[in-house]
From TrEMBL:
Gene from which the chain derives: rimN_1
Record domain YrdC-like: where: 23-63
Protein name: T(6)A37 threonylcarbamoyladenosine biosynthesis protein RimN
Organism of provenance: Chromobacterium violaceum
Region (Disordered): 1-22
Pfam families on file: Sua5_yciO_yrdC
Gene Ontology terms, MF aspect: double-stranded RNA binding
SUPFAM superfamilies cross-referenced by the UniProt entry: YrdC/RibB
């Protein structure tokens, strides 16, 4: 999702998964629900995406 985009609309599971995979492939960040809260995710080997997650969370780069 580009910066400033809103949440994803309700989509059938497979369409939502396809959109999330594309977002990750394109270096984006996704939000996902866990048992007790929401998490942020990106491709673990994409340094730029990791920096985006850290910026969203307002954490310094050395905490990544």
């Amino acid at each position: 999702m580009k910066s400033g985009s809103g949440p994803l609309p309700r989509l059938p599971g497979s369409r939502l998964q396809q959109r999330a995979r594309k977002q990750l492939r394109d270096g984006g960040v996704i939000a996902y629900s866990t048992e007790s809260c929401y998490g942020l995710g990106c491709r673990p080997l994409d340094a730029r995406a990791i920096r985006r997650v850290l910026a969203i969370k307002a954490r310094p780069n050395h905490k990544g």
